[in-house]
Amino acid sequence: MRHIASLVVILLLLAYTSIAWSFPWNKDFVDQLAIKAQETLTPAEPDSVPIEGGETLPTLPADISEEEMDALKDTAASIPNPIPVTAESVARGAELYTMTCVVCHGTEGLGDGPVGLFFDTKSPVDLNEDYTQDQADGSLFFTLTRGRALMPFYRDALNIEERWHVINYVKSEFGP
Ligand code: HEC
Asked: Which of 10, 49, 89, 91 is deepest in the core (most CB within 10 A)?
């Protein structure tokens, strides 16, 4: 009887230790809080303020219409481009464009990148056309930060400064 009692006590103690909780059910070390490759940062809570610079992004509703998205893009036109169009900025933009945009928009910006060709309903836009070239830098910044209906956002792949370099490149190298 004493043995059984001690066994019960030991089992109860074990139940509250990590050994009991981890064996044999919890072997999935992949499932952790750490940010995995290709995973974006957890969106900030509404009203949160970055304490180390950066940006806060209000969450867009998943069912946002194209018109609502365009209205937000127009509002963003007033965001000034803080990076002057220097040779260095354009060169950096070229590198980043090659890394992030070429797959869809193609080296000449025509929208014919290898992945771009798979788009069925709407192709990646030709960045040489007036539609893009006539947009204010702030509106392009909005597109890179928030994405479009089909185009993913690039705020996790490109930091704020990098996005402006890409915009300087797209504006100086493409177009008529
Ligand atoms: C995975 C494919 C893909 C990648 C990568 C991609 N785009 Fe796009 N992009 C698209 C598609 C598709 C559209 C048009 C359809 C849409 O509106 O979603 C588009 C549209 C655009 C537009 C026009 C947005 C508007 O005002 O309607 C711009 C500007 C643009 N892309 C720039 C870029 C730049 C710069 C990069 C690199 C940082 C990039 N894209 C990366 C697929 C892509």
From this structure: 89
| CA of residue 91 to ligand 1 center, whole Å | 20
Using CA positions, which residue lies closest to atom 24 of ligand 1?
143
Q: How far is the CA of 125 from the centre of ligand 1 (A)?
A: 6
Q: How many A from CA of 119 to the centre of ligand 1?
A: 11
Distance CA 153, CA 144 (A): 6
Q: How many residues does the chain have?
A: 176
Cβ atoms 59, 145 nearer than 8 A: no
* Each residue's pLDDT tens digit, 126-153: 999 999 999 999 999 999 998 888 898 9
Question: In this structure, are residues 132 and 140 in contact, taking their beta carbons and an 8 Å threshold?
Answer: yes
Please name the residue that has the structure tokens 């930060």: 145
State CA 99 to chain mean position distance. Answer: 14
pLDDT number for residue 19: 59
Burial class (CB in 10 A: 0-12, 13-18, 19+), 102: middle
